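Annotated sample (chain length 228).
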Amino acid sequence: MPTPPARPKLLLFDVNETLLDMSKLQQGINQEFAYDFAFKQWFSLLLQYSLVDTVTAAYHDFKQIGDAALDMLAQSLGQPVRPAARKQELLTLIAELPPHPDVVEGLTLLQQAGFRMVTLTNSPGPTLRKQIDYADLTSFFEQLLSIDDVKRYKPHPDTYLTACRQLEIAPADALLVAAHGWDTGGALRAGLQAAFLARAGQATYPLAPAPTYTGATLPAIARQLIEH
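Output written by the structure step:
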């Protein structure tokens, strides 16, 4: 039998879609472009071009790429590019998202069990702080970490390894919790453990290592970690 993984000493949490419910932003973008799949297309462009920046040694923050992705979305749909002020209104919604209904319970279980917890997100630092404050989750996290300092986007290994160095934790003793197969895959490739939170519409990447833990809700993952 394979040796079970060590109980993690540090939990790193992705934020967008993992902790925060993006339905409000999804509704806003879908309505703006009168297209039911506008948000999904926009978010895919946001992730795709963050990786383009990373592999071409460029860097624009997530907000800048999100703005550019709105222009690309409009062009691909044959619609006029939105004015800067309107794009700003739409992008502001990302800082006004509630937590998923299971998040507070899951974080409370983990906090009571004594786990160290931080965020690790592609959102820029100022946006991250607004997001966590708006969702009233600040008290759960030791630090709010963004990829800003690294200037490479997840799933580049440097994003995870830099966070571990900052927190003085060996990668094998850290675990990423995320609702994205590309994110859990990236963490595992970097030597961390990973828990896949199976939010609706999300899937693991079959060509990446299997997640260390998988759960349909954050409390389900929390109980697996606590009982380990």
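Annotation: Residues 38-55 form the longest helix (18 residues).
Annotation: The domain at 10-21+97-227 is CATH 3.40.50.1000 (Rossmann fold).
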